């Protein structure tokens, strides 16, 4: 029975990783037909419908209606961070950078989280955080300079700045989400639902809410259904079933490498050597951050 449960957890986690591996491609292709805020508006709507469907199918939709005033206010605040601010900044980064650069830069959010946890959660940076962060951000430097590491010149400083800013917003979202005791899927649905009117308002006041080209609409639907909805549900399911969270969590390291394959195949970008080197450094930094934690406790 346990073997079967672990196999199901593995399959669910792999499904989530595969979906997350395609989203950089979906972002880039969709942005050929939509402004960043328009992509967010339609994707947000698709995500709300998807999450509502998942909650109905699993019999948890009633929990949405039983929330307290404090729960809804928290969801409104979190929703203004994610999806509103986070995805606007992220999509603006993808609009300016090649997908092969924006995607790995966004992966450094785990180190941003460790840094922000110091003032916000009164935690301390461990040596694992510092060593892993130094390795990972050296990868950021390689990608941002496209391999010209001594030139002190970023190929697209605004795009790089936006990609790194998105990691701050994502980390803030997860830090403040730790105080939410509701079912994660219920909380996510509330966050996205309460943010939707604000997303639509910003879209209406800027790029406009007209019906987009079908290719843009299809891309936004894909992002909303799979990246914002199903992938999250699959990952939560895997975490609930597994007895080895660490083993399942390590599968996430596959995602950025698979993503480069999809970017090359469907977006048509030639993957630069600097991207490979930078991504390896970023993933190595993440692995060091996780792997060194139990080791450094025994060091003076």
Descriptive labels:
13 helices, disordered C terminus
Q: N-to-C SSE series?
A: HHHHHHHHHHHHH
Report the major sheet: none
Give the number of DSSP strands. 0
Q: Which range best describes the helical content: under 10%, 10-25%, 25-40%, 40-55%, 55-70% or over 70%?
A: over 70%
Mean pLDDT: 89
Low-confidence stretches: 294-300
Count of DSSP H/I helices: 13
Structural class by helix and strand composition: mainly alpha
Shape: globular
Determine the N-to-C terminus distance. 43 Å
Radius of gyration: 19 Å
How many domains, in number, for the residues? 1
Strand content is: under 5%
Describe the structure concisely.
The protein is mainly alpha-helical. 79% of the residues lie in helices and 0% in strands.
Fold and architecture overview:
The chain has one domain (2-296). The chain has 300 residues and is mainly α. The protein contains 13 helices and no strands.
């Amino acid at each position: 029975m346990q073997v079967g449960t672990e196999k199901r957890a593995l399959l669910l986690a792999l499904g989530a990783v595969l979906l997350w591996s395609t989203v950089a491609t979906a972002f880039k292709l969709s942005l050929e037909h939509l402004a960043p805020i328009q992509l967010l508006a339609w994707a947000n709507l698709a995500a709300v419908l998807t999450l509502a469907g998942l909650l109905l199918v699993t019999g948890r939709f009633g929990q949405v209606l039983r929330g307290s005033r404090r729960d809804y206010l928290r969801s409104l605040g979190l929703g203004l961070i994610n999806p509103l601010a986070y995805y606007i900044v992220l999509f603006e980064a993808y609009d300016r950078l090649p997908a092969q650069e924006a995607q790995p830069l966004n992966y450094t959010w785990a180190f941003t989280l460790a840094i922000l946890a110091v003032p916000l959660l009164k935690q301390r940076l461990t040596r694992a955080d510092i060593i892993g962060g130094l390795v990972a951000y050296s990868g950021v430097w390689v990608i941002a300079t496209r391999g010209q590491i001594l030139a002190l010149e970023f190929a697209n400083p605004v795009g790089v700045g936006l990609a790194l800013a998105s990691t701050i917003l994502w980390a803030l979202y997860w830090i403040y989400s730790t105080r939410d005791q509701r079912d994660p899927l219920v909380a996510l649905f509330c966050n996205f639902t309460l943010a939707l009117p604000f997303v639509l308002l910003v879209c209406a006041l800027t790029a406009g809410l007209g019906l987009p080209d079908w290719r843009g609409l299809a891309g936004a639907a894909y992002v909303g259904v799979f990246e914002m909805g199903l992938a999250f549900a699959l990952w939560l399911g895997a975490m609930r079933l597994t007895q080895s969270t660490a083993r399942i969590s390590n599968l996430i390291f596959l995602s950025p490498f698979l993503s480069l394959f999809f970017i090359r195949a469907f977006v048509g970008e030639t993957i630069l050597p600097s991207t490979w080197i930078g991504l390896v450094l970023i993933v190595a930094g993440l692995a060091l951050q996780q792997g060194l934690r139990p080791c450094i406790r025994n060091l003076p």
